[in-house]
Design a protein that fits this description.
The structure is a homodimer. The first copy, chain A, is mostly helical. Helices cover 65% and strands 4% of the residues of chain A. Chain A has a two-stranded antiparallel ribbon. Chain A binds a DNA duplex through residues 1, 27, 31, 34, 53-55, 63-67, 69-71, 74, 85-87. Chains A, B: Its main location: cytoplasm.
Chain lengths: 151, 151
Amino acid sequence: MNEKHDQAIESSLVAPDTQMESFRQARNNRRSELVEDYVELIADLIADGGEARQVDIAQRLGVAQPTVAKMLKRLSAEGYIQQRPYRGVFLTGTGKELARVSRERHQIVESFLCSIGVSVETARMNAEGIEHHVSPETLEAMKRFTPKRHL
Amino acid sequence: MNEKHDQAIESSLVAPDTQMESFRQARNNRRSELVEDYVELIADLIADGGEARQVDIAQRLGVAQPTVAKMLKRLSAEGYIQQRPYRGVFLTGTGKELARVSRERHQIVESFLCSIGVSVETARMNAEGIEHHVSPETLEAMKRFTPKRHL
DNA sequence: ACAATAACATAGCAAAGGCTATATTTCCAA
DNA sequence: TTGGAAATATAGCCTTTGCTATGTTATTGT
């Protein structure tokens, strides 16, 4: 260990453990991002056209179809969706619930950004990344600060 | 292709290309997150104790030391830092500039969250993930909405 | 001065999330 | 009803980011 015990000089650094927790949580959130994105998108596609197909998911996410196929297997294994070979994909109860929560959070974040003066295009772009890092407490704060007309 | 041209029913779905752009950008941001986190942390450690050592970086990020060593090689290759074997790591001009920008953005996001009523702990946690998805436009909006006393 | 310890380097592995290429199945239209 | 196109499945590869285990170099206390 290095021997600087002069803690008066400590500038903006928080305690190591505290900072570690923040980084760990950010990494954790990153791991669940994809699941949330997929489930939310699948719910939207089903609500919109009655079905969620791999090609449509792939197009909207901007990835290749085999990438989607692989991820759907994971979602299936984790109990969010059900899929039959060469058929569409359906959300389970768990999947529907996750989709609902994700969708709602997404909406709140996007509306909130608009309400503080961000353009709709930028709000949409930024919300896609931000939503996954917004805790319930922060979400509540955003809800409070969003005028009704934006919701 | 499926043949539903009844666009009146389209619920909340934006155009496929538009959505694709959002997802692509979110993925892009994710790739630069780690670089920004490292450079920002290195700058803080240097400002705080005069040096940035692998063990300290590893402890604060909550990862193992070889993980840090590998990333430092990448940062070195990309011109953000300079390192001499068994010696500390130093920021290049590019690195310092990136650190400055990242640090400022981080601060603004964290202060902004506090200013809308989020607790400091949650603000710190959420800011760590959110900062990387905040575009210049959104950052400006956040700055406008943060009272002076929070900055 | 030199052994013990702490820090760093390196090798090798794994999982996640991308990709292309290609095989298989389904579906629609002639 | 059947042949071609579209959708899905599968194989195999790559990169990133993490890990453990272990070797190598510096530093430090006696």
